[in-house]
Design brief:
The complex is a heterodimer of chains A (about 425) and B (about 375). With about 425 residues, chain A is of the alpha/beta class. Chain A folds into two domains: about 170 residues, Rossmann fold (3-Layer(aba) Sandwich), CATH 3.40.50.1970; about 220 residues, Up-down Bundle (Dehydroquinate synthase-like, alpha domain). Chain A is built from 15 helices and ten strands. Chain A has a six-stranded parallel sheet, sandwiched between helices. Chain A is globular and about 65 Å long. Chain A starts with 5 loop residues before the first strand and ends in a 12-residue tail after the last helix. Chain B contains 16 helices and ten strands. In chain B, the strands form two sheets. Chain B has a six-stranded parallel sheet with strand order 2-10-7-5-3-4, with helices on both faces. In chain B, strands 6-9-8 form a three-stranded mixed sheet. Chain B folds into two domains: about 160 residues, Rossmann fold, CATH 3.40.50.1970; about 200 residues, Dehydroquinate synthase-like, alpha domain (Up-down Bundle). Chain B is globular. With about 375 residues, chain B is an alpha/beta fold. In chain B, strand 8 and strand 9 form a beta hairpin. Classes of the chains: A alpha/beta (about 425), B alpha/beta (about 375). Bound molecules: fe (ii) ion. Fe (ii) ion binds next to helix 6 and helix 10 of chain A.
Chain lengths: ~425, ~375
């Protein structure tokens, strides 16, 4: 087990997992001395009937003070203010966030306003500006991927003033995260695939980048193993309850791993492809993950090689000579992308040129690649990547991952 | 990989480990809204200069700290009441426990008092009776722990307490504090740690979260204990062991104590032996027994015990045997490295054979589930003889 010169590790979120975990929410709230939660969610989640499942699971044990199911796909300051008003009006005493990243961000923003009895969210932005516990917050993720149910960060956008506020504090961690297989059963194959690959990227980057530590490693290994065994399976068979719960566990484990050890260039480029072309985060992760491993190979190939054990299983690991294990991991990640492509009826893209929007229009035209490479230069996540990248390096990775060609090893800089 | 139908997991502990970790303390206290910590330690640790390291870490911070360096090996309620008065009169707002064992028990119980009133303490003895967070508690462990420091457990006099609110908010593992200890002390905490982590990893409440902490703990003990016993100057090994103690304390707090834990304690209490030594002797014998019982996960244990390569090379039907064999080899290696100080059987630990029946009955009487006196006796008899 590697023991770095210095590390920190923390995940204070209580995890309640199971096929009937939602039913435990009233007890969890009582434990937190709350009984009138406000449910925060979005239209997509509500439309899939998930709010109904949550409410019927908890309604006998608590009074649901309010249901706000109109959070925007991008967390928004005005929405945060509106929900805080609703919370106060209905005299709620706690929050239940049901959804993905932006729902969690919004709920965390609301929680700052109502707990601090404040009107100006900006005052609390930055790192460690919060000094005391907030109101009870229960997170119920509806995808198995982002890990935002266990992260201490919130991003709220002020669309009027074109500002992005980031909040970092252990007090932003949800008190409880509830992982219930019913929340992801209806997730379409393409979203299952992309979000699952986001979780894989979290765990793999946590294990192979510079800020790894023994506890994040242990969480990452468990996550990778669960994803290797379950992601393709649940994408093929969405109703597989055990597979769904295993993926929910995996996403949480991966979330804990990366929020305690940071990520690398896969996320660096993923963020910029997301912001320049609007490509969903998970899709970027799926496409870029093998390239990140290839690019860093000369620095961390021994770590990548170890991942063959959790990803491919003990037999594949034993059957592969030590010197070939890292390449085998990269091949396996590409194989998983192929399998997901097939299992989703071609909707899970394998390369950037395959990414299309709802109208079938290509989302990443080749001429956008330079802009993506340029945007990546200013992303902080590169700091923890084993090898450095400049504009030309980013562009090279984008061009090859656009085409779907492997990286040419001799073109990779070795610093 | 095993993914259970349902589980719960909670670990409020933040871990900071490594070079100059103590220097982050003023900042960490600030994030917990604490400005005036009360440090509790033992005379022994104060005498060997460990408190000076703490004082140094606060030097330029502007934070005032109070220090009590007289925690005895067996603290009583009277001491808690005195400390309560000191804490209140000094205007402190948080606690820092430096050391292991009784020092940490004292700090945990004092925390119940200062978060409410000293009269409350008896009321909260038992399981999960504390219902709200206590004052910030920082643990600065040394190698002289018992393996329970970061756990939800504490005891004083005849009272014992179990609550997740007793777990430290922050554990600061600083190499300067992890100084050399004698063989018995070093082995005791690490064998408690190994036993707890193995029982979490193989037990009926196994889940991926507690497994992660247990996995790290088992790997660290297997990779470092023999080498630290052989050569206590192995500073990196000592640091890894304290990391293991911490991780296992977190895992153990999320699971019902297993049979090796209960029987080991019973033997230790009956014969004035260290719990860790007894648990270490009993562990492989109990695992052998559990392989034929429902609800245990023994084959997978080979992974944290031996690592990827051995696990992958070992055929499925050989994994249990291999794992248990490794634990017996480990006992042998510890015996040799300690020049016979860490014994491998209850007989060599000088447990009288005629006491086994009584110990088995007592241990079974204490337990709420799992094993009866007959099974316990069988295991004790095997462990008495040794492998
Ligand atoms: Fe991500």
């Amino acid at each position: 087990m590697n023991l770095p010169g210095y590390y920190e590790f923390c995940c204070r979120v209580k995890i309640i997992a199971g096929h009937d975990a939602l039913e435990k929410i009233p007890d969890a709230l009582a434990y937190l001395r709350a009984r009138t939660p406000m449910i925060v969610s979005d239209k997509g989640v509500a439309g899939a009937g998930l709010i109904d499942i949550v409410t019927s699971a908890i309604k006998d044990g608590v009074t649901i003070g309010a249901v706000a199911d109109d959070v925007t796909p991008d967390s928004d300051l005005q929405v945060v203010h509106r929900l805080a008003r609703l919370y106060r009006e209905k005299r709620c005493d706690s929050l239940i966030a049901v959804g993905g990243g932006s729902v969690m961000d919004t709920a965390k923003g609301v929680n700052i306003l109502i707990s601090e009895n404040a009107d100006d969210l900006m005052k609390f932005s930055g790192a460690n500006a919060l000094k005391r516990a907030l109101k009870p917050l229960i997170a119920i993720p509806t995808t198995a991927g982002t890990g935002s149910e266990v992260t201490l960060v919130a991003v709220v956008k002020d669309h009027e003033r074109h500002l992005k506020m980031a909040f970092v504090s252990y007090f932003l961690l949800p008190d409880v995260s509830v992982l219930d297989s019913r929340m992801t059963l209806s997730l379409p194959p393409a979203i299952t695939a992309a979000t699952g690959m986001d979780a894989l990227a979290h765990a793999v980057e946590a294990y192979t980048c510079l800020a790894k530590n023994p506890l994040s490693d242990a969480h990452a290994l468990a996550a990778i193993n669960l994803i290797g065994e379950n992601l393709v399976r649940v994408t093929r068979d969405p109703g597989d309850k055990n597979g769904r719960l295993a993926m929910a566990n995996a996403a949480t484990l991966a979330g804990i791993a990366f929020s305690n050890s940071m990520v690398g260039m896969v996320h660096t480029l993923g963020h910029s492809a997301g912001s320049v072309c609007g490509v969903p985060h998970g899709v970027c992760m799926a496409i870029l993950l093998p390239y990140g491993l290839e690019y860093n190979m000369h620095k961390n190939g021994h770590l990548t090689a170890e991942l063959l054990f959790p990803l491919g299983g003990a037999q594949v690991y034993a059957a592969t000579p030590e010197g070939e294990r890292a390449d085998k991991v990269i091949a396996l990640v590409r194989r998983i992308n192929e399998d997901l492509h097939e299992a989703s009826g071609g909707r899970h893209p394998r390369f950037f040129r395959e990414v299309v929007d709802r109208e079938g229009k290509q989302m990443v035209p080749r001429e956008k690649l330079p802009e993506i490479a340029k945007t990546a230069l200013s992303d902080g996540s590169l700091f923890y990547n084993p090898e450095d990248l400049d504009y030309d390096d980013f562009l090279m990775v984008m061009e090859t991952s656009w085409e779907g060609e492997p990286l040419e090893r001799r073109k990779i800089k070795k610093g | 990989m095993f993914s259970p139908d349902r589980y719960e997991f909670f670990c409020p502990v933040k871990t900071n480990s490594g070079s100059r970790a103590l220097e982050h303390l003023p900042f960490e206290l600030d994030t917990m809204n604490a400005t005036k910590p009360f440090v509790i330690t033992s005379q022994k640790d104060a005498r060997r200069g460990l408190v000076d390291v703490i004082i140094d870490a606060f030097k330029d911070s502007g934070v005032t700290i109070g220090i009590f360096d007289g925690a005895p090996a067996a603290p009583g309620m009277k001491l808690i009441k005195e400390l309560f008065t000191m804490y209140r009169d000094g205007g402190y707002d948080s606690l820092i426990a430096v050391g292991g064992g009784a020092v940490v028990d004292t700090a945990k119980i004092l925390n119940i008092a200062v978060s409410g009133a000293p009269e409350d303490i008896e009321r909260y003895a038992g399981s999960d009776l504390i219902t709200k967070p206590l004052k910030p508690l920082v643990l600065v462990p040394t190698l002289s722990g018992t393996g329970y420091e970061s756990s939800r457990y504490a005891c004083i006099d005849t009272l014992s307490f179990s609550s997740c609110f007793l777990m430290p908010h922050l554990v600061v593992i600083d190499p300067r504090m992890i100084v050399f200890e004698d063989v018995e002390t070093t082995a005791a905490a690490s064998l408690v740690t190994l036993t707890h982590a193995v029982e979490v990893y193989t037990g009926p409440e196994k889940n991926p979260l507690s497994d992660s902490y247990a996995y790290a703990a088992i790997r660290f003990v297997m990779e470092n204990l023999v080498s630290v016993i052989r050569d206590p100057r192995d500073g990196k090994g000592r640091l890894a062991l304290v990391n293991a103690h911490n991780a296992a304390g977190c895992a153990f707090s999320n699971s019902t104590p297993g049979m090796a834990h209960r029987l080991g304690k019973a033997v230790g209490d009956a014969c004035q032996l260290s719990w860790g030594l007894c648990m270490g002797i009993l562990l492989p014998h109990i695992l052998e027994r559990q392989t034929s019982e429902d609800g245990y996960h023994i084959p997978g244990l080979l992974l944290p015990l031996a690592g990827f390569d051995v696990y992958a090379e070992t055929p499925e039907h050989m994994k249990v045997q291999k794992a248990i064999g490794i634990l017996y080899d480990f006992q042998r290696d510890l015996f040799e490295a300690s020049r016979g100080a860490i014994v491998r059987s209850l007989k060599d630990a000088e447990v009288p054979e005629e006491m086994l029946r009584d110990i088995a009955r007592k241990a079974a009487g204490r337990s709420s589930t799992g094993f009866d006196a007959d099974v316990s006796l069988m295991v004790l008899e095997q462990a008495w003889k040794g492998k």
